[in-house]
């Protein structure tokens, strides 16, 4: 049976991010992605001003009620960028009422980057997001979000400190944590925690990074986990995929705010199909 993910995040018209990423990255891995749109924007917010923003908070309850009445259940729930704090309740409901009991809840606590909150995110969101990550099995914050969630100042972290940050986040509830985007000179690292074990994975990084990379990263991690790949290996493969895309974007001089171009490389994610 094909696995299904309910993916709750925004739909941004431009940016190769959020639902546009999930609805390409998960199917490329053989997984159905059923969208739960939190808001619709004309563009993602990083680097743009004056984007249109249509909040779908009011629509979410009916949307989920209908799925519940149909007895639909999902192998995984994946939450990302939420339009308002009020949507945290719908995200928790999605996890508690629409995920199979042994399914996976991946919460990407999308709130900011480079030490700052994204344009449309409320300063109260980090405190409230803590209650959602308590419902998650896996979380994928970047370093900014990890600092916001733990109430620490954004700064550079040494490997041992970053792994401690991952352990601290695990005390809120999730069994698996990966903190992405720990940059140092020409490298980018991920601090990972998996059921008591920590691991620091360092990779080369492209000269220019792009908004939306975290969404692509989280989508690949989730797909790999659903295909039975271990957590540290899933993180490693997701980081390699993002690096490949970023290098290609660098080569063609892609415009940063337009996001990470990943579509030409989706075939790298596809499972090998047995010939019949
Ligand atoms: O990629 C993260 C993201 C998702 N959705 C929206 C965003 C961003 C990053 O800026 O603005 C709307």
Question: What order do the helices and strands come in, and which of them pair?
Answer:
Blueprint: E1 4-12, H1 18-28, E2 32-41, E3 53-55, H2 57-69, E4 74-79, H3 87-98, E5 99-107, E6 112-113, E7 116-117, H4 125-133, E8 138-139, H5 143-150, H6 159-170, E9 176-184, E10 187-194, E11 197-204, H7 213-226, H8 231-251
Parallel strand pairs: 1-2, 1-4, 4-5, 5-8, 8-9
Antiparallel strand pairs: 2-3, 6-7, 9-10, 10-11
This protein binds 3-hydroxy-5-(hydroxymethyl)-2-methylisonicotinaldehyde (PXL).
Overview of this structure, please?
The protein is α/β, with parallel strands linked by helices and 276 residues long. Helices cover 36% and strands 25% of the residues. It contains eight helices and eleven strands. It is globular and about 50 Å long. The two termini are 18 Å apart. Bound molecules: 3-hydroxy-5-(hydroxymethyl)-2-methylisonicotinaldehyde. 3-hydroxy-5-(hydroxymethyl)-2-methylisonicotinaldehyde binds next to β1 and α7.
């Amino acid at each position: 049976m094909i696995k299904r993910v309910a993916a709750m995040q925004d739909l941004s018209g431009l940016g190769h991010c959020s639902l546009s990423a999930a609805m390409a990255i998960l199917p490329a891995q053989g997984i159905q992605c059923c969208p739960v749109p939190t808001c619709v924007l004309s563009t993602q917010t990083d680097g743009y001003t004056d984007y249109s923003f249509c909040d779908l908070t009011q629509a979410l309850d009916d949307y989920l009620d209908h799925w519940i009445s149909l007895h639909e259940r999902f192998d995984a729930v994946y939450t990302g960028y939420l339009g308002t704090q009020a949507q945290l309740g719908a995200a928790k409901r999605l996890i508690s009422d629409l995920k199979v009991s042994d399914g996976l809840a991946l919460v990407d606590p999308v709130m900011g980057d480079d030490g700052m909150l994204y344009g449309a995110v409320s300063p109260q969101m980090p405190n409230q997001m803590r209650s959602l990550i308590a419902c998650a099995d896996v979380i994928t914050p970047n370093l900014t979000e990890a600092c916001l969630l733990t109430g620490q100042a954004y700064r550079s972290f040494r490997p041992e400190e970053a792994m401690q940050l991952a352990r601290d986040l695990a005390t809120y509830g999730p069994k698996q944590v990966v903190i992405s985007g720990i940059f140092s000179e020409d490298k980018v690292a991920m601090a990972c925690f998996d059921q008591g074990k920590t691991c620091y994975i360092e990779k080369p990084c492209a000269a220019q990074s792009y908004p939306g990379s975290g969404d692509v990263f989280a989508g690949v991690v989730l797909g790999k986990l659903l295909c039975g790949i271990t957590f540290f290996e899933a993180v490693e493969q997701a980081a390699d995929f993002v690096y490949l895309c970023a290098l290609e974007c660098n080569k063609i001089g892609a415009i940063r705010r337009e996001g990470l171009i990943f579509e030409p490389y989706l075939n790298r994610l596809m499972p090998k199909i047995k010939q019949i």
